[in-house]
């Protein structure tokens, strides 16, 4: 029996990393489009960009993100394949917001100890989600950090690149008064606000492995419901209904008002009508348990809306039908109007350093026992 190498004695097992790559290779390869050059294991992912010569003025779009503390729920449940869907959703769906088609992405996993099957499960989820969006996973890195992370701890991050023709790029300048705002339903919490989720669960002493009266499965599995992916539907919509979309907003950290304000120009406003939908049960249960009204958590959770489309009013019906055909639940939540200049504590006009339109959530949620504010 050979003695462990000095590196292994420090807590880093490179052979475990090699086994993890072997386990994930098939899933990664399935995500590859014909434009991917080479395979898994190179120092850099290679992507044939010669097709860009057919563009008049190609603009590259890039995005990077992680999953946040939702990974703590995955670790506690020992369920790791759904986190990949969350990562792809957080990264790739940011790219379509500007009208770009995502092309490829890379991932990064830092862990306390490489457990090959666990790493393979994470990457398999990433690859399957990316494949469903038409995105190639062209590379990644798994880093073992003993002493910095506990053996069962890990964090994930990713980055993606897409492309859009310059004159087809979506930006707030295309939004006009009278445009219709269409909501696309979320699948649940997605990957935002989990520090609050985990605090409520801990304060209540709830067991993640136990079923709650409001859910048909274990609490932890309810919280791990993967992020809804919108890329494929939006890319198809842009191809079949060119010019109908004026802007998109991906509802992530900051909630509905902040993310919509970022894509509405100053001088315009939207009153988002709460009565047009009811937040998912998981959010109502968590808010009630934490002693919060739904209005108090609107800047933390997506409240049931994962993406919003600002649409030419003459195309709103056709756009809604197309998105429904793609499998999404959609409904109209508001209409863009001129900003009357009246400010109230409920008005949001800026986020992420962007001074945008005036957004207010108005009315009371449908079928909700919790007050809106």
Sheet with most strands? 7 strands, mixed
Oligomeric composition of the shown chains = single chain
Going across the major beta sheet, what is the strand order?
Answer: 8-10-7-11-9-13-12
- CA radius of gyration: 22 Å
Averaged pLDDT, please?
91
Helix content: 25-40%
| Count of helix runs | 11
What is the total tally of β strands? 13
Helix/strand-derived category reads: alpha+beta
Q: Tell me what portion of residues adopts beta-strand conformation.
A: 15-25%
Polypeptide structure, described:
The protein has 373 residues and is of the alpha+beta class. Helices cover 30% and strands 25% of the residues. It is built from eleven helices and 13 strands. The strands form three sheets. Strands 8-10-7-11-9-13-12 form a seven-stranded mixed sheet, with helices on both faces. Helix 6 (194-204) crosses helix 10 (281-290). The relative contact order is 0.15.
Topology:
Layout: H1 6-9, H2 14-30, E1 36-37, E2 46-47, E3 58-66, H3 70-77, H4 83-96, E4 101-111, H5 116-132, E5 136-144, E6 154-165, E7 180-185, H6 194-204, H7 219-223, H8 231-240, E8 245-250, H9 255-261, E9 268-273, H10 281-290, E10 305-311, H11 316-325, E11 330-338, E12 348-351, E13 354-362
Parallel strand pairs: 4-5, 9-13
Antiparallel strand pairs: 1-2, 3-6, 4-6, 7-10, 7-11, 8-10, 9-11, 12-13
Helix pairs in contact: 2-5, 4-5, 6-10
């Amino acid at each position: 029996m050979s003695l462990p190498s000095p590196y292994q004695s420090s807590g880093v097992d490179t052979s475990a990393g090699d086994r993890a790559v072997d386990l994930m290779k098939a899933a990664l390869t399935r995500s590859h489009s014909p434009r991917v050059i080479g395979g898994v294991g190179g120092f850099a992912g290679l992507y044939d960009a010669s097709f860009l010569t057919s563009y008049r003025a190609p603009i590259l779009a890039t995005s990077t993100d992680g999953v946040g503390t939702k990974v703590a729920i995955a670790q506690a449940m020992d369920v790791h394949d759904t986190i990949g869907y969350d990562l792809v959703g957080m990264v790739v769906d940011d790219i379509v917001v500007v009208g770009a088609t995502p092309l490829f992405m890379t991932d990064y996993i830092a862990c306390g100890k490489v457990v090959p099957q666990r790493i393979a499960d994470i990457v398999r989820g990433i690859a399957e989600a990316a494949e469903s969006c038409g995105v190639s996973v062209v590379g990644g890195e798994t880093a073992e950090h003993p002493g910095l992370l506990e053996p069962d701890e890990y964090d994930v991050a990713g980055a993606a690149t897409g492309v859009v023709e310059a004159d087809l790029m979506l930006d707030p300048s295309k939004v006009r008064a009278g445009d219709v705002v269409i909501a696309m339903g979320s699948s649940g919490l997605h990957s935002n606000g989990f520090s609050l989720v985990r605090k409520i669960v801990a304060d209540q002493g709830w067991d993640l492995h136990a079923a709650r009266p409001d859910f048909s499965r274990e609490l932890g599995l309810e919280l791990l419901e993967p992020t809804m992916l919108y890329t494929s539907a939006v890319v198809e919509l842009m191809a079949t209904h060119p010019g109908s979309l004026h802007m998109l907003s991906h509802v992530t950290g900051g909630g509905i008002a902040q993310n919509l304000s970022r894509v509405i120009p100053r001088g315009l406003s939207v009153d988002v009508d709460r009565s047009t939908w009811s937040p998912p049960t998981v959010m109502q249960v968590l808010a009630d348990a934490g002693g919060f009204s739904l209005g108090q958590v609107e800047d933390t959770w997506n409240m049931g809306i994962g993406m919003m489309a600002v649409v030419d009013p003459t195309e709103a019906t056709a756009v809604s039908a197309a998105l429904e055909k793609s499998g999404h639940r959609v409904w109209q939540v508001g209409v863009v109007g001129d900003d009357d200049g009246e400010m109230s504590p409920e008005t949001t006009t800026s986020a992420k350093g962007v001074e945008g339109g005036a957004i207010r959530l108005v009315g009371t949620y449908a079928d909700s026992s919790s007050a809106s504010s």
